[in-house]
Amino acid sequence: MSSNNTPDIRYLFEPRGVAVIGASASPEKISYKVVNNILSGGYRGKVYPINPKGGEILGLSMVRNMMEIQEPVDMACITIPAKLVLEAVKECAAIGVKFLSIITSGFSEIGNVEEEKAIASFALGHGMRVMGPNIFGIYSANASLNATFGPKSIQRGHVAIITQSGALGIGMIGKTSVANIGLSAMVSVGNKADITESDLLDYLMDDTQTEVIMLYVEGIRDGERLIANLSQVTRKKPVVMIKAGRSKRGALAAASHTGALAGSDEILNDIVKQCGVLRAESIQEAFNWCKFFTTSSSPKGENTVIITNGGGIGVIATDACEKYQVQLYDDSAVMKKIFGQSVPEFGSVKNPIDLSGQAHSQDYNASMTAALANENIHSVIGLYCETAVFDVNNLDKMIRENTLLYQKSGKPILFSIFGGEATENCILSLRQENAPVFPDVYEAVSCLGALMAQNRHLKTPPGAPVEAVLPISEINVILDKASAEGRHFLLADEAKRVMELCGVPMPKSSIARSIDEAVREAEKIGYPVVMKVVSKDILHKSDAGGVALDLDNREEVVDAYEAIHHNCREHNPRAIIEGVEVAEMVKKGTETIVGARRDASFGPIVICGMGGIYVEILKDVSFRAVPFSRQDVLSMIKETRIYPLLLGVRGEAKKDMDGVIETIIKLGSLVKNCTRISDIEVNPLVVYDQGSGVKAVDARVLIKGSEKH
Ligand code: ACO
């Protein structure tokens, strides 16, 4: 057992004994296939087929009852109809089973939520962990255990796949075998009643058999734990993720811009990047990456050279390099020195190195040997278009020999070759030998891009988490008052007070309840001023005509006061108007949006991007999960178009980047520590020249209703 009475995850991947509950002698049944796969796969532990009727299966005697088993059973595969599962789970508890692999369908995926919960809660209460239900099982190379009802033969290797989709997972077993990708593990998590990807990563991150992990994910259940685990795993081995579907937008439809913008897929995309996960666009791409990772060394640097016999394909590869952030080496003097001998005069020694249509295999060999020997070049992409000059019978040999030389010296090389039947056959045969040869240039370059991205991730040390110290108890008093009044948002003055307590500067302001008071306050603050309605019943003030800007004198303040009352009464005759806020008119600067929210999948997250009234149309925002480092915040800003603006364009002064970073840190810390806050949005956060700070012009704070802090 590991801590808190849960079994060590090792027993799931390396069980000493496996029971198959519902083992049937009928070859068409799922349970028969599971037993058959376990036996054919060479599992070294004990196998116990359980069937109350007794009899035999594949030469093994059926065990009528779990209680008859005297030796340890670390895993029970359950393959009986849903209504019988709970009883069987109770029997497993009685003999100390550690892991349940519940293949049976018919639980939460069809609305049978309670039964699934009852099984998981019973199991956890009795020291057992549940995988599934609704899964195809588990394959573990370390135990030579194929406890699935997928294909009988699984190629052993170094890629671990965790999949939420069963059918797709079974398909992947077949596909990996055809693609010559060996597996270290294949785990189906299905409904994730208990065990999630995070539990499995605990084992796979230190498993020496596993070199790459591929995740097929549809929905995230324990986002905060997954983030922590992924951040750790990606420092040890690459993690490739395919995320399909879009999770619920319900929680995101909060009545704030942040909520409306926070489409879950965008959030996931940014957060997995923050963890160092490589997100593939398709299963094919994920497979390509996984295979390449297991056959290629890490590059020593970023400089890549393309060697081609065709200009066109070289241009396509150059485009692909830009897309996948593969850096092309372009020191022309060095390039001339390296390739001057091997490239004909009518070719090109600029990257892409063009050997011309006249190239033979020896020309490729000469250039590739020169590139291999030079330490300024860190990886090579070889391109080939079929020509009558190049004897296609030499193609296979040229690629194989160069691949071997490069693999031996630890320098990545990939090929993309294009042509007729002989070329296609060459791809098929070379791929069986794990040579990195692709029919499409983009496939080749995307593999190198993934390798470079992983390398960059490993070379960038993780930043220390940053958190602001905030007066949370004082902030909670403000939240308590709003909750007591049944409100799910803070009034403007309350939000302003929260910002002040967090040290986020806001414009000077006060609330006027009469025209005279408005004029007095405006004169105290100094013209120009802005005025905004204060009403619990009006959330979107501009839409209600409740905002007046740039008021320069007493007369304009008087007119605006009357106009705001008139407009808001028309907009919502029942709205109770508590007054009008008179505030300093903020000087112009760069408008950004910053915010923080509690995401349904990932917990506290922060957001930043282009601010102002077009924020929802521009959708120029980026996200990070809390906790984060200062460098995470900077990389988030860099992903948006505000970054060049903050650097200063067209001779403008550099803007106060630190002010933006500090504000984001404060908002993230606030949402992390005040669990009742669901959303904070500052829009715009006006950013002034470097050293002159920022100003939060408008802050909106939404709170969850009933929770206690
Ligand atoms: N203990 C042991 N054996 C039992 C018990 C028990 N308590 N109760 C019944 N059995 C026996 C049965 O008698 C039967 O054996 P028999 O053939 O000798 O009579 C055997 O267990 C199996 O029970 P059946 O009632 O025949 O169930 P069947 O095999 O038809 O179906 C199954 C069971 C496969 C679990 C089914 O209910 C199911 O859920 N199928 C879907 C599985 C699935 O798709 N999972 C998701 C995978 S991922 C994807 O989408 C591909």
Question: What descriptive keywords fit this protein?
Answer:
single chain, 709 residues, alpha/beta, Rossmann fold, D-amino Acid Aminotransferase, Chain A, domain 1, 4 domains, 7-stranded mixed β-sheet, 6-stranded antiparallel β-sheet, 31 strands, flat, binds acetyl coenzyme *A
Indicate how many domains the architecture comprises.
4
**Number of helices, counting only DSSP H or I runs of 4 residues or more:** 24
List segments where confidence is low: pLDDT < 50 over at least 5 consecutive residues: 246-263
**What is the helix content?**
25-40%
Number of strands: 31
By CATH, the topology of the largest domain is: Rossmann fold
Q: Quote the average pLDDT.
A: 92
CATH superfamily of the largest domain: Succinyl-CoA synthetase domains
Structural class: alpha/beta
What is the topology, as strand order, of the major beta sheet?
Answer: 9-8-11-10-12-13-14
CATH architectural arrangement of the largest domain? 3-Layer(aba) Sandwich
Span from first to last CA?
34 Å
Which CATH class of the largest domain applies here? Alpha Beta
Rounded to the nearest angstrom, the radius of gyration is 31 Å
Bound molecules: acetyl coenzyme *A
- Largest beta-sheet characterization: 7 strands, mixed
**Which word captures the global form?**
flat
What percent strand? 15-25%
